[in-house]
Specification:
This protein is mostly beta strands. The protein has a single domain, classed as Jelly Rolls. The protein contains one helix and 13 strands; from the N terminus they run H-E-E-E-E-E-E-E-E-E-E-E-E-E. The protein has one helix at 12-18, and strands spanning 27-35, 37-38, 41-46, 51-52, 59-66, 72-89, 94-105, 113-125, 130-132, 144-145, 151-166, 173-184, 187-205. Strands 2, 4, 5, 7, 8, 9, 10 and 12 form an eight-stranded antiparallel β-sheet that branches. It starts with 11 loop residues before the first helix and ends with a strand.
Length: 206
């Protein structure tokens, strides 16, 4: 599962050249790549009463810090990927819904800037002993069987991308992925191998 937002022009060399023809010798394209820290989450159990969206129930999954003070006319791309494992018994139907949010916190600013939300959803139906993604067509290749212990144990990747064109420099901004809402029906969840990377492309004066 993936999503990509805001398609910015990646050809920074032409921008550095044509936007500043007189200063071309002093302007060069630069790229900054930062790998963040992933904490993951779980294992935790969701029951049918879990409809959490309170601040106290938020779970931080990963974060990365990016400094673009030396760049201008900058494009920033954030990539997140993780492995979500879930378990459930075959006594009844199950549902799992996790809402991930990407936020940004810049230096000397206490407020969080929300950048986007992405949803991971699964439905597990007792009647056919298979699991399918919510909103997807029933397809045998997408169905997940229960194991011999009459329990479902499955893992699935969850990834998304986000992009923005910055008009102002970012002084050590921190990007954070967190779960802001979790809904489930007797499902045990574990989020592993969370990876968050930040890529910045812009012009630097030398």
């Amino acid at each position: 599962m993936s999503n990509f937002r805001v398609n910015c022009n990646p050809d920074r060399s032409s921008i550095c050249h044509f936007d500043h023809p007189k200063d071309f010798r002093r302007l060069v394209p630069r790229t900054i790549l930062k790998c963040g820290h992933g904490t993951g989450a779980g294992p935790f159990l969701l029951d049918k009463e879990d409809r959490h969206h309170d601040r106290r129930d938020r779970r931080t999954i990963a974060s990365v810090t990016l400094d673009t003070r030396k760049l201008f006319d900058t494009t920033i791309k954030i990539d997140f990927c993780s492995i979500i494992s879930f378990e459930a018994d075959n006594d009844h139907n199950h549902e799992l819904r996790l809402v991930f949010r990407l936020i940004k916190i810049c230096k000397d600013e206490e407020s969080k800037i929300p950048l986007g939300e992405w949803v991971f959803e699964r439905a597990i139906h007792r009647r056919d002993h298979y699991s399918t993604g919510l909103g997807k067509a029933e397809d045998a290749s997408l169905k997940i069987p229960f194991n011999n212990d009459n329990e479902l144990e499955e893992s699935d990747s969850f990834c998304f991308s986000w992009c923005e064109c910055e008009e102002e420099e970012c002084d050590r901004c921190r990007y954070i992925v967190e779960i802001v809402r979790q809904e489930g029906h007797d499902v045990r969840v574990n989020i592993n191998n969370a990876i968050l990377t930040a890529l910045a492309v812009g012009c630097e004066e030398i």
